Structure formats: C-alpha cells, structure tokens
Amino acid sequence: MTLAEEFRSRNFSIYGQWTGVLCIILCLALGIANIFHLHWVILFSVICLISALILIFIEIPLLLRICPTSPAFDAFIRRFETNYMRAAIYFVMSAIQWISVAAARTSLIAAAIVLLIASAFYALAGVKGQGFVGSKTLGGQGVAQMIV
Question: Which of 45, 89, 134, 145 is the most buried if burial means most Cβ atoms within 10 Å?
C-alpha cells in the first residue's frame, strides 16, 4: 500500500501514526528551543524531549529491531499496540504539556495541541472499531520481519 492509499483508507490509526511523527518532530524541536528558559519551563522541555524519544519507538516499530534496547523497555513500548493505549499515552503527554502553561506561556503549547490531535485520532479509531494499522512507510505491517 502506498502512502497515498494509506491516507485514502480513512483509517484513523494511520492518521494518528502520521500525526505522531509530526509530534516527534515538534517535541524534539520545541523541547530543545525551550530548554534555555530560566524557569520551570526547563522541566517541561525535558519532559517534552523524553516524550519525543518514547514516541519514536512507539510510532516507528522498525527501531525496536534495529536499536539495542532492554527487555523492560521493549515490554513498556509494546503496551501501546492498541488504539486506546496510544490515545491514552498521547493524552497524558498532552496534559503534561498543557500544565506547562501554568509555568509560562511558551511554544510548548503547540506540542500540547498536536499531541491532543494525535490522541483524538487514535481514540476515534478505537471508537469506530478500526484495528490498529501501522504505516508500511514507518516500518509497520511486516517490514520489520523482512529485515530479520
């Protein structure tokens, strides 16, 4: 299935996964950009960077095969294989970034918004009964098995 066919499939888990990739980029960029504040924002920037690293492994399953990780970390990442669990972790990450508004109004709000949108996509996929479908472009649906 090509990327265009994936988007035409109207499967919200595909939309969620690609929004998750956008979240990874935003969390990395905004986490680094806001880490230079001399306020509580530093804490939220570090949390945003950690969120990005976790999301990389959640959204790009190929990396679990390539990168040497511990069995405990692998088990933690594998918890998020369903739409509802992914919606939950994105919602929690979004809520943490929304709390950063109490410390100061920064660009971390953009990360909070996009994390919330990804959570909504995964929640919609779960509510509609759509099974999780990983994008082939990101290493889902048998691509990781072809490498081994």
Answer: 45
Neighbours of 7 (CB within 10 A): 13
Q: Mind listing the pLDDT tens digit for each residue in 15-43?
A: 898 899 999 999 999 999 999 887 888 99
| pTM of the complete model | 0.86
Cα dihedral 18, 13, 93, 78 sign: negative
Residues 6+ apart with CB under 8 A from 115: 23, 27, 51, 90, 91, 93, 94, 97
Distance CA(26)–CA(93), nearest Å, equals 13
Cα–Cα distances in Å, from 35 out to 54, 66, 95, 119, 131? 18, 29, 19, 25, 38
List pLDDT tens digits, range 86-100.
999 999 999 999 999
Residues 6+ apart with CB under 8 A from 92: none
Classified as helix, coil or strand, 90 is helix
Please state, in angstroms and rounded to a whole number, the distance separating the CA atoms of residues 115 and 93: 7
